[in-house]
Design a protein that fits this description.
single chain; about 190 residues; alpha/beta; TIM Barrel; 2 domains; five-stranded parallel β-sheet; two-stranded antiparallel sheet
């Protein structure tokens, strides 16, 4: 009964067989699995939710606060935004909040600009988790290199590029974010 009400975990039930643990474990797994991106003390854990909407139940892990930087900005503008991320801190009802991550968007559709912006972010904010947003697998492959070993998110896999993006994410040990037209398309893509 406690297991069904989520008051106890499956590993706390000694009389459950291994086969039953496997079946119950899969059935009770959160529909939104957790991921951790970034590394070190600034790593961000999101997901592991049992509901799709916050009004249904409080989220287990807080949403990440992220600043978008477009690769169409000048080097000076990108540097200024990075500095704002590094120095951000807000006191909200006794809770200290800061910008958790940087989302670099390939707004230019130019592989070279995207890669240059990625290198700039990696050099100026090496500990800040990064989300690389592009639908072009060549741009994703170029931009992910400066973040080797830092577990970035590559966001932009879709039905047309999913295999190439998955190969890049696997090779670079990055998390892959998927774009889909509804939950049905998302489930077939993942």
């Amino acid at each position: 009964m406690k297991l069904a009400q989520r008051q106890a975990s499956l590993d706390q039930c000694p009389d459950v067989s291994e086969e039953a643990k496997k079946i119950l474990g899969e059935a009770s797994a959160p529909p939104i699995r957790s991921i951790t991106f970034g590394s070190g003390d600034r790593a961000v854990k999101i997901g592991e939710e049992t509901v799709l909407f916050r009004h249904d139940k409080k989220f287990v892990n807080p949403c990440a606060l992220t600043v978008e930087i477009k690769d169409t900005l000048s080097e000076g503008e990108i540097t200024k935004k990075i500095e704002e991320v590094l120095t951000s801190e807000i006191d909200r009802v006794g809770q200290k909040l800061r910008i958790d991550a940087i989302a670099l968007t390939n707004a230019s559709d130019d592989k070279g600009k995207f890669e240059s912006a990625a290198k700039l972010i990696a050099s100026k904010a090496p500990n800040v988790p990064v989300i690389l947003s592009t639908t072009d697998h060549g741009s994703a492959e170029a931009a992910v290199k400066p973040f080797a070993g830092k577990k970035p998110i590559i966001y932009g896999a879709n039905p047309g590029n999913a295999e190439a993006m998955a190969n890049i994410a696997k090779a670079e040990k990055a998390t892959l974010g998927v774009v889909a037209n509804g939950l049905d398309e998302l489930s077939t893509l993942t």
